[in-house]
Specification:
Blueprint lengths: L2 H14 L4 H10 L4 H14 L4 H14 L4 H10 L4 H9 L5 H15 L6 H14 L4 H17 L5
Helix pairs in contact: 1-2, 2-3, 4-6, 5-6, 7-8, 7-9, 8-9
């Protein structure tokens, strides 16, 4: 199998979004591209800047924070994408110290707006579940839920 075929696979995937080196290698391996060819193509892509796991991880973290996910969830997603732990640590180090708090608060406030007619205990349970599914720590969930439910009780759900 030729390097042209391997390059075509990688370029098609990169047209859609940035990918980690491991994602590209996995896609090529699925198409029975020999390991030596995969390494050669990916090394060349790194040389010219088409594949860069550090840049990919930074962009992934930035994009997923807008989707209100915890750093713990982001770390797991990047691990699944084959990004090295040190690269993940560097990408997450760039986030603000209170990024998890801000993301959890924004998510809770957003969800709270659609839960006005629910009983307080049902609203609390649903918000807690939503925060937990996004990977936020239990202590942070409790803190955010206390603030958001207090705001709702005070009549300021969008403070």
């Amino acid at each position: 199998m030729s390097e042209d075929f391997a390059r075509e696979i990688a370029l098609r995937l990169l047209e859609v979004r940035a990918r980690s080196r491991a994602e590209l290698a996995q896609a090529m391996a699925k198409k029975d591209v020999p390991a030596e060819t995969i390494e050669s193509v990916l090394d060349r892509f790194e040389e010219v800047g088409l594949v860069d796991d550090a840049t990919f991880a930074g962009l992934w973290v930035e994009g997923q924070q807008r989707r209100m996910k915890s750093t713990r969830a982001l770390r797991q997603e990047l691990r699944l994408k084959g990004v090295d732990s040190e690269v993940i640590d560097e990408a997450l180090a760039e986030t603000a110290d209170d990024a998890d708090y801000q993301a959890a608060l924004a998510l809770a406030q957003k969800k709270m707006r659609s839960m006005g007619g629910l009983e307080p205990h049902v609203r609390y349970r649903r918000l807690a579940g939503a925060l937990a599914r996004r990977g936020f720590a239990p202590g942070l969930c409790h803190r955010v839920l206390s603030e958001v439910t207090e705001e709702a009780a005070d009549g300021h759900p969008d403070r």
